[in-house]
Amino acid sequence: MSALEKAESTVFVASGMYAAVAMLSALVPAGGHIVTTTDCYRKTRIYMENELPKRGVSMTVIRPADMDALQNALDNNNVSLFFTETPTNPFLRCIDVELVANMCHSKGALLCIDSTFASPINQKALTLGADLVIHSATKYIAGHNDVIGGCVSGRDELVSKVRIYHHVVGGVLNPNAAYLILRGMKTLHLRVQCQNNTAMRMAQFLEEHPKIARVYYPGLPSHPEHHIAKTQMTGFGGVVSFEVAGDFDGTRRFIDSVKIPYHAPSFGGCESIIDQPAIMSYWDSKEQRDIYGIKDNLIRFSIGVEDFEDLKNDLVQALEKV
Ligand SMILES: *Cc1c(COP(=O)(O)O)cnc(C)c1O
Ligand SMILES: *[C@@H]1O[C@H](CO)[C@@H](O)[C@H](O)[C@H]1NC(C)=O
Ligand SMILES: CC(=O)N[C@H]1CO[C@H](CO)[C@@H](O)[C@@H]1O
Predict the structure, then answer these.
(1) Domain range 2-185, CATH architecture
(2) What is the four-CA torsion angle of 313, 318, 320, 322, rounded to 10 degrees?
(3) Which of 86, 134, 212, 235 has its CA 20 to 30 A from that of 96?
(4) Exposure class string for 171-193: b at 16+ Cβ within 10 A, else e
(5) How many angstroms separate the Cα of 55 from the Cα of each of 16, 37, 83, 179?
(6) Of 219, 280, 217, the residue nearest 88 (C-alpha)
(7) CA Rg, the chain, in Å?
(8) Containing H/E element for 82?
(9) Cα–Cα distance between 250 and 247 in angstroms, integer?
(10) 3-state class of 62 per DSSP?
(11) N6-(pyridoxal phosphate)lysine is carried by which residues (predicted)?
């Protein structure tokens, strides 16, 4: 993992979520201030909103492209750390890592990138100036939808602090999980190459389809950060989000009609996975859906290693049910 991310050091832990928790616990002092973005893995946000205040840690949440808000937060607070995904979940927004690294460093703040959606094949955030990279190894790194793990990579000086915290608290990766992750990593470059290609073709195909209202994929020129993705990524990954031209029930009929992808809330594995965030990760809160722009017709589609034509034909027949 250190070789892939060009890191001095990496610590593997029991889950991606725990990687984030261990990193935040070890590196953000009590009473510190962090900055994060609106579009992100929901449990990370819940952790930061509900748990960090108990240690007196406060937070500024910015929109992914709002660099003025980041500058403002850095100017008006003693910011310990800016923690963001890029690409983000579920809209695949991209943050200019080199730019935000410079902004953070000039104010003495650390930059930690959750690079799970990119995989270390498509993006090496440490080489762009980030101080730390975390991954949910549950996704591309293990790649087979059968194991949970996470990791933190970066300079030895920083990763050591995470490792010391981890050795006290637990959250240890079990040996069988470690074996499955190592086994999965042997094909990481092949899987991601295939997923990059199939997802790109799928995004282009969906964007032209009359039953599709909008496609979110950083490889498309229509994506708001395509210009950033193009320069800092070497591929755009296997997740394509889109809105179908229909209401809640039309979208549900579509998702119930696909035959190849599994209905599940993960991504990055060999098997394609599809979900409707309004009834999956955001099922419990209409208010949160409205705040974060999760519409009833939004679909998150994680493309596996199946044949493009098979997947396309499956979507075409299912879209007739919208
Ligand atoms: C899945 C995910 C996590 C959490 O990882 P787990 O391994 O499921 O705990 C964190 N961040 C992102 C971006 C994720 O996709
Ligand atoms: C800012 O926070 C750091 C810890 O992250 C601390 O060492 C430093 O003294 C703080 N600076 C000010 C001006 O409060
Ligand atoms: C690293 C990698 O395999 N990148 C590829 C992802 O897919 C695109 C096609 O859309 C290729 O151009 C990249 O080389």
Answers:
(1) 3-Layer(aba) Sandwich (3.40)
(2) -150
(3) 212
(4) bebeeebeebbeebbeebeebbb
(5) 21, 20, 17, 35
(6) 217
(7) 19
(8) strand 79-85
(9) 5
(10) strand
(11) 139
What gap in Å lies between CA 246 and CA 256, rounded to an integer? 14
Task: With CA atoms as reference, report the closest residue to 37 among 238, 220, 292, 229.
Answer: 292
Give domain 188-319's CATH number out of 3.90.550.10, 3.30.1330.30, 3.90.1150.10, 3.90.320.10.
3.90.1150.10
Report the pocket of ligand 3 as residue ranges, CB < 6 Å.
121-122, 192-193, 196-197, 200, 219, 234-235
Per-residue pLDDT tens, the chain, 322 aa: give them: 999 999 999 999 999 999 999 999 999 999 999 999 998 898 998 999 999 999 999 999 999 999 999 999 999 999 999 999 999 999 999 999 999 999 999 999 999 999 999 999 999 999 999 999 999 999 999 999 999 999 999 999 999 999 999 999 999 999 999 999 999 999 999 999 999 999 999 999 999 999 999 999 999 999 999 999 999 999 999 999 999 999 999 999 999 999 999 999 899 999 999 999 999 888 888 888 888 889 999 999 999 999 999 999 999 999 999 9
Protein residue with its CA nearest to atom 5 in ligand 3 = 235
- Is 32's C-beta closer than 6 angstroms to any atom of ligand 2? yes
CA 17 to ligand 1 center in whole angstroms:
6
Q: Give the residue, out of 122, 187, 194, 197, with the most ligand 3 atoms within 8 A of its beta carbon, to mutate for a pocket test.
A: 197
Structure tokens given for 101: 């690294």
Distance of CA 48 to the CA centre of its chain: 16
